[in-house]
């Protein structure tokens, strides 16, 4: 017998194929698994085991998969096993079936038993189908971008490559759509998190009097000044230089730390060999005189040439703005309570240095990846590579009870362009904040300098600035906002990111894009940062972006926002002032809850259910999918209101009432197969206005309880109850009309 643990494995896809096409199936298996999609495919077992053991393995694989994928070729029709033990078995067990046509499909000559199953199911994209290629043109472009990003760091953790068969990509994209699995490039790892959001007095950014600057090589300075990358016409350029002089920055220690990191983890000869083999356009000195200083010179010259090309040829907008790098992060708790004390200790840097460290990171990670396990306890070791502190987040638009998430696509004029991202994404720096208003007492606008030369910076002022500059939304119109966590992005760059959010209430009188466009017209940087803007339902947002290239941090936060079990989600979306919601309440997708309701601890509101005004849902109540509950309804402890039940206005449900929705419930069919949705019939129960159901009553499905009827405690109700009647007993009988 096959080991039980193998039989019980849950997979996303079961791949069915003819043995002649095992190579294609094997490559598809790799493609799916490389993108987080688990598949049932084991050619060694499938082609060596026989008899009942083989059949048992196949059947269990099918039952434990979400999708049955048939690689269709004409010779499938000649396989009795595929037709009956795989395809028909999947259909009989209610498994979703998809087909990929590796050969042309002719339904006219197809076997009737095969045609009956596959005629109306989903057929996946094929390169020969021009309609599908057109549909996935943007996804194909994003895939090429993702491959380019992976190549920049020689990322072999997944085999990003040009496809020898583009159909592998097309099949994978459609499978991702069915499973709701987008594929961001890179990873995002949470370092510190607040259950809701950090209060303004719980988080601080302190820039120490340390600086890390890689200078622009002399031979490129005039050209970059001519292109306005250096010495822009911003009035604060001179003033920010004065500020740096005031701070008396230590600019040596971080450069020494960078040298020490490389010397500890790499051989200089290995770095030299990699550059010479992979960058033939770079002029290197002789190997025997190559040093870390030479490495930094080579990197700075390459970055300078890249900037010149991007500004002159690609017409990108860039300037060497000031930035803040991350020295260290600490996240402590105050004594005897759960309040956070989060501090980010920073250093001063600039955009040119940031791009140089990104290029250096590309080279080092390609030689040997030493950047895989970064956490708060060792973050200080990587400080020279963390020249940028980003702040990004989503704007959620609320129109009455309808919640919409704003997505934007980055402009290709900025770093990591052409990727779908947050509603706003800003680099935290003192460049724009420092001298909006220089004060005579030593303060610089939104920042202050203490006696040690440390600069205290408000993260919330940066949050509001980012939202305004990219979207034109002033702080005053945000109904709620906050910074909820800090994480690290490991993709084609390393970057620490502050994740935030904002909620904006808008009237239903006009579409959201129309209203948002008015704000965007006054956004100073929106036209530079954003190329596209979309608004989608909060609950379906991640699924909408399957097949598109997402930044890893935006995928992380979008997933957290739309997860009903997430406390952050519940706090922001469901804790309205006109509601009282207890602890550990789970709210599903598209739930509607009226004004003045009470929902006590451990209750669950499932997808699409509707609850009217001034209802009382007491402890440990389960409301199933699609249930409709009227106004002023009271449901006592320990009740389950199942799909198919409707409670009109003013209904009272006592403790431990049992509703049902299937008259003949079974767990398995007579042949031993599990019961699926097609094996039972949903029957509806309707409870009329003002009716009361006593504790412990059992209500058989398919009946109507009339208005103002009264059901006695423990009654077993098996048939309709007239309006105003009082019933009791088992089976329940009318004792009073």
Describe the structure.
- With 737 residues, the chain is an alpha/beta fold.
- The protein folds into four domains: 4-179, Toll/interleukin-1 receptor homology (TIR) domain (Rossmann fold), CATH 3.40.50.10140; 201-385, no CATH class; 389-427 and 460-562, Nucleoside Triphosphate Pyrophosphohydrolase; 576-736, UDP N-Acetylglucosamine Acyltransferase, domain 1, CATH 2.160.10.10.
- Strands 19-22-25-28-31-34-37-39-40 form a nine-stranded mixed β-sheet, with no helix packed on it. Strands 6, 10, 11, 12, 13, 16, 17 and 18 form an eight-stranded mixed β-sheet that branches.
- The longest helix is centred in the middle third of the chain and has 21 residues, at 292-312.
- The model is unreliable at 1-7, 232-237, 435-446 and 564-573 (pLDDT under 50).
- The protein is built from 21 helices and 40 strands.
Number of helices: 21
Q: Which value, in Å, is the CA radius of gyration?
A: 31 Å
Major sheet: 9 strands, mixed
Number of strands: 40
Count of folded domains: 4
Termini Cα gap: 64 Å
Strand order within the widest sheet?
19-22-25-28-31-34-37-39-40
Class from secondary-structure proportions: alpha/beta
List unreliable stretches of 5+ residues: 1-7, 232-237, 435-446, 564-573
What brief labels describe this structure?
737 residues; alpha/beta; Rossmann fold; Nucleoside Triphosphate Pyrophosphohydrolase; 4 domains; nine-stranded mixed beta sheet; 21 helices; 30% helix
